[in-house]
Amino acid sequence: MGLSLGAYGLLAISGLTLWNARRRQHPRPAWIPLAHRGLGISLVLLVLFLLAIGLIGTLGHYGSLGHSWHLPAGLTVVTLVFTSAVTGWRIHPKQPQMRRLHITSNLLLALGFLAVSWSGWTVVQKYLPPSP
Q1: Which helix (H) or strand (E) holds 102?
Q2: Alpha-carbon torsion angle 123, 52, 117, 103, nearest 10
Q3: Which of 5, 44, 94, 111 minimizes the number of CB atoms within 10 Å of its CB?
């Protein structure tokens, strides 16, 4: 989860850098868009990995899903990450609404990460042995 949050933070920094260059009409270094896309792909893969671990771990431990609000929070984060990725790839001057959707999904993703982190903490407490 920490790597996902780190990737999200770096994506925010690189996205703000791209936005600032576009707003000021300054040339942007060629490596920033490449880094932003690479980080985005990494975030998608990390979230899918965390989803797989969560599903397999929960099914292995409980035999079923839906024992807490972590599942809907996690599925919301997965949906927002995929929404951000798809809209990010489709940003084009002919489709300005994609940039708005991309930014909106990323802002909502911050709330999603907060929710999944909080609910994940409660789930982890169930797995830990009781303290003496």
Answers
A1: helix 96-127
A2: -160
A3: 94
Write the CB contacts of 63 (distance below 8 Å, at least 6 apart in sequence): none
Count of domains in the chain? Answer: 1
pTM for the whole structure: 0.90
User: Is residue 127 included in any domain, yes or no?
Assistant: no
Give the total residue count for the chain.
132
Q: Which domain holds residue 13?
A: 2-122
Q: What is the pLDDT along the chain (132 residues), one digit of tens a residue?
A: 999 999 999 999 999 999 999 899 988 889 999 999 999 999 999 999 999 998 998 888 788 888 889 999 999 999 999 999 999 999 988 888 999 999 999 999 999 999 999 999 988 887 777 777
User: Which structure tokens are listed for 124?
Assistant: 């982890």
